[in-house]
Amino acid sequence: MSQEVSQDMSQPTESALQGLMMDVPLLTSMIMKHAIAWHGDVEVVTHRVEGDMHRYTYADAYKRICRLARALEGLGLMPGDRVGTMAWTTHRHVELYFAIGGTGHVVHTVNPRLFPDQITYIVNHADDRVIFLDTTFVPLMEDLQDRCPNVKCFVILCDSGAMPETSLRGAKCYEDLLQAAGEGDYDWPQFDEKTAAALCYTSGTTGNPKGVLYSHRSMTLHTMSACTGDHPLGLTSRTVILPAVSMFHVHGWGVPYAAPMSGAKMVLPGPHMEGPDLCRLLDEEKVNYTAGVPTVWIGVLEHLEKTGGKLPYLKIMNIGGSAPPLAMIKAFEEDYGVPVVHAWGMTEMSPVGTTGRLRARHAELEGEDMYRVKLTQGRPIFGIEVKIVDDAGKALPHDGEAVGQMYVRGPWVAAAYFNDAAATEAAFDADGWFGTGDVASITPDGLVRISDRSKDLIKSGGEWISSIDLENHAMAHPDVVEAAAIAIPHPKWEERPLLIVVRREGSDVGAREIRNVMADRVVKWWLPDDVVFVDEIPHTATGKISKKDLRQQFADYRWPDI
Ligand code: ADP
């Protein structure tokens, strides 16, 4: 069993005979050097914050990354210093990833959608010395800069001559900085591959955000994995990828590293993540691969339905970050002919842990049998070990029935949180496995099925109801655009599910019709006791349904008949 293998791995024995292979450190600078050596002519296309399109090649990108590396030298940074970015998914942000990490500094991607208090917390906790930010975030940082006294200067990602009026400390223009840095190759330093390369904070659904500090080694290994066939990304030099994922959400799921490693063309949406913009890019750039959270795809589906649009070039759609409803998977597969690959992961896992790429025996399945597999979060990718345990920490069988807390380990899984002993203490078990906070079952052939985040499960009469399942089945009703299930206290059952629904525009579908559709799919006692209709469901800083906000919003909710 995997657990036994891991026990052995956790205690490396002294090697009897050392291998005679080169000890080349795995550094992120290798990735860009490879891209310009062999894929220099491949394009990186950006829908800029400014609104226009920008295109250049990896060779062009590399020249600017070298300039940026030189410019960083002039900012008085020490090795290991954290450099913050507050930026959209753009070519400039890609340049920052490589220049900051490659020079031995740490790129800290600040999620601008966090609450202002959380932003100041993470900037101070990370001890960011410089922050590079898009013009969009200038007013926000102007408000917060006095609470972040260790940030020496702010660099605004704008064209020369387009600097906004700003009170930001030591404000500089990015393009001017690059221009002044001078041309020529950069002599990338060699250092220990375990050196930190990047820092990302979880969105802090409970308590303060927690920092995950990635090393060059973990990043390079995660990226190499992303370029293998069965990985949910599985990039190759023939891929044209549009990551519909913000680069402040676990480094765009690794795409900005994996695309140059594989020589894939990258199409970056900037801040323009609405359905019409994404559909235009998918079409005009002949994108054959895309990845994002379900919320983004709701927008895309709505736009396609309205306009009668098609997705002629897409070969794979990777959906993860939260569970895609079956109705969404079917819509892409059956209405638009795009196979969906489901994936699961998290900030602490760099982020990818499982892949929904079908094995030969699953690829032969048809109809509902195939969808049953696609609805699972898939199987662990090479490098990731998984186990589920009961409340006493005892390993549960992988029989597809037992449901328990999911733990993971692997070379790109966090070993601790950054400067946060209490959070670290709470998250890891005695053997060093990381507790994901997700509750799951695992089938004998390794298909992981996440029932819920443990804090989102609904406890009714001593039994658990999966909010993910309820949402999924509610979305089977064609007039349900988005649905969220939360636990509401109940005098008899402890908790019961409340379903919160956004209806399709113009629809007047009622609770009864939705419950009827769900009744065909779930046991009776799982059915929500009430359905509430809202115009909008709140989302987290990473675009997922925010159960925390919903719980607050419905804190005063009372069951109708009680
Ligand atoms: P956060 O959303 O907290 O900022 P992450 O993006 O790291 O941080 O979220 C990770 C969590 O998202 C996982 O622990 C899991 O609960 C959820 N998640 C990710 N992918 C999936 C998926 N395919 N299905 C269900 N839940 C998922």
Give a structural overview.
By secondary structure, the protein is α/β, with parallel strands linked by helices. It folds into 2 domains: about 30-440, ANL, N-terminal domain (Rossmann fold, 3-Layer(aba) Sandwich); about 455-555, ANL, C-terminal domain (GMP Synthetase, Chain A, domain 3, 2-Layer Sandwich), CATH 3.30.300. The chain is about 30% helix and about 25% strand. The protein has 18 helices and 25 strands. The strands form 5 sheets. Strands 2-1-11-10-12-13-14-15-16 form a 9-stranded mixed β-sheet, with helices on both faces. Strand 13, helix 12 and strand 14 form a beta-alpha-beta unit. The model is unreliable at about 1-10 (pLDDT under 50). Bound molecules: adenosine-5'-diphosphate.
Rounded mean pLDDT is 94
Oligomer: single chain
Tell me the span between the first and last alpha carbons. 49 Å
Helix/strand/pairing category: alpha/beta
From the 3D coordinates, which CATH architecture of the largest domain would you assign? 3-Layer(aba) Sandwich
CATH topology of the largest domain, by name, is Rossmann fold
Whole-number total of structural domains: 2
Look at the structure and name the CATH superfamily of the largest domain: ANL, N-terminal domain
Please mark out the parts with pLDDT under 50 across 5 or more consecutive residues, or reply none: 1-9
The CATH class assignment of the largest domain is Alpha Beta
Radius of gyration: 24 Å
Measured by DSSP, the beta-strand proportion falls in 15-25%
Largest sheet: 9 strands, mixed
Strand order of the largest sheet: 2-1-11-10-12-13-14-15-16
Shape: globular
Ligand catalogue: adenosine-5'-diphosphate
